[in-house]
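Board work, copied verbatim: Phosphoribosylformylglycinamidine synthase subunit PurS
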Amino acid sequence: MPRIVVDVMPKPEILDPQGKAIAAALPRLGFSGFASVRQGKRFELTVDGDVTPEILQQAREAAEKMLSNPVIEDVVNVEVVAD
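↓ predict structure ↓
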């Protein structure tokens, strides 16, 4: 079954305490060279049938209206993923 993946990230001006905690932990665990970390959300929508332009548009609308909080988050990606 085809899937549509939606990625949501905090807006740049919004503080990201989880991202800051991860960024602080990386060097302690031996991972260096990363300037910052932002943590987001990923949603996978399984489609029953083919992904039509109408279904993809519905996924975009759902991402803007339900899967993200438009006050503090941006929908950064909506794409069909092949299995």
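The two ends are 8 Å apart (CA to CA).
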